[in-house]
Amino acid sequence: LIGNNYKHEVLPQEETMGGFENLQVLGLDGCSFSGKLPAWLSKLTNLKMLLLSNNQLSGPIPSWINTLHSRFYIDISNNSLTGEIPLNLSSNRLTGIIPLGIGHLGALASLDLSLNNLSGEIPQSFCNLTNLQVLDLSDNRLAGPIPPELYRLHFLSELDFSNNDLEGPIPTGGQFQTFSNSSFAGNPKLCGSILARQCGSAEAPPVPITTRERTMAKTIFAIAFSAFFVVGVMYDQIVLSKVFG
């Protein structure tokens, strides 16, 4: 951690920089560094915390940032980064709910959280990701409904919600008209025309018995019981008369 030092210098860009492969924490925040995110950071495969906030870094967020699979925290806020945000955290061991803050990354173009152990619901804030083109949440433990407002994501061309525990109707309209049923497979509680599974087809509850029906049932039972009692008494008298007659 060497944050708040090296004021107003250019972040080293040499790709040949080495010797930091086992580094787990790198804090360069608050240094007013300029320049781009250097490629040598991609070699820090054991990195668990990367702090680059409050600098003057510019340029796009490089795609290699998704290769740092061991990381659990990264902060590049308060810089001058541009372009689309690639966010691929698939095939990890992520648990808990999806952070609501992801829904405020307006420039996010691709979000892949597949093959993890995430739970909870799909955040409603995802409806704000109007630049999103790819959304993959497959193979998690997500539950609850699919936010219907997701149909407003007009640039969404790839979607995969398969193998979760989602439920309720699949949104219609917008890009949802273009996705195949494989995008929703493995969610037995989902319904909609795309799955040929009608919504609201659950078995109707039994019709309650009215007071009048209860009264009629009691009357019929009383009549039947009385008739049975009379027949029983008559039978006993016949038997007794034969024995003592």
Automatic annotation (TrEMBL):
Domain of life per record:
Eukaryota
Q: What is its main location?
A: membrane
Q: Which family does it belong to?
A: Belongs to the RLP family.
Query: This chain belongs to which protein, by name?
Result: Tyrosine-sulfated glycopeptide receptor 1
* Compartments, as annotated in UniProt: Cell membrane
Annotated Gene Ontology cellular components are: plasma membrane
Give the taxonomic lineage as stored in the record.
Eukaryota, Viridiplantae, Streptophyta, Embryophyta, Tracheophyta
- List keywords of the entry alphabetically: Cell membrane, Glycoprotein, Leucine-rich repeat, Membrane, Receptor, Repeat, Signal, Transmembrane, Transmembrane helix
Annotated transmembrane regions: 220-240
- Give one Pfam family, short name only: LRR_1
Q: Which SUPFAM superfamilies match?
A: L domain-like (SSF52058)
